[in-house]
Amino acid sequence: MKLIKIAAAALITLSSFAAQAGLMYIDGGANFPVPTNNYFKNVLNPQTYNIGGNLKANQTESLFLSFEFLGKEAGWTNTFTSEGNTITTSGGSFSYSKAYTLGELIQFTFKTGGAVVPNTVANGNNNDGEQLVSFAIALDTEFNGVMYDAILFFDDTGGYKDDDNHDDLVIGIKASVPESSTFVLMLMGLAGLFAARRLKA
User: Fold this and answer.
1) According to the model, what pLDDT value does residue 125 have?
2) Looking at the whole model, is its pTM more than 0.85?
3) Could you please report the per-residue DSSP string of the chain?
């Protein structure tokens, strides 16, 4: 009986950490190896990303999202905008909390300062990058040894200059649940472990 209580308490504790996993997913597109001419290929693990897909919330939950400039390989001034916040090829970061429903798009747009028409691509209207500006997405990927829930790779030329290597503006996203529910689950698990240990003694 005591063993069952200990196992149940451990399961609750583990579930509090699992609640943080898989908060976003990619809808559509196709997965490809990161090409050798991508400037950041060697600092990515794994070295694959999705082109043409769109990033969505994986559950009905309030999410705390942090966006961070990771790098760029572009001569033009490109921008990334989400919920009124902007990161450019000069750098920057921001974060916010927002309530999402399952399958809702994470709102963001990439824009290039180059002579490309159209010069923007929004999440929800991504494409395969053959003729238009596009972005690639990698989930649960390390960048220079730091883990991100998602990394976005912008290509600012599309088919116009045929480099389609998605490295012109790279944005890292970290996601978490700001609600107290995860914290409460963890406390319940720890309390269960403590109670089980006292019963054993």
Assistant:
1) 97
2) no
3) -HHHHHHHHHHHHHHHHHTTTT-EEEES-EEEEPPTT-TTGGGEES-EEEES-EEEESSSEEEEEEEEEEE---SS--EEEETTEEEETTB-EEEEEEEE-TT-B---EEE--SS-SS-EEETTS---SSSS-EEEEEEEEEETTEEEEEEEEEESSTTSSS-----SEEEEEEEE--SSHHHHHHHHHHHHHHHHHHHH-
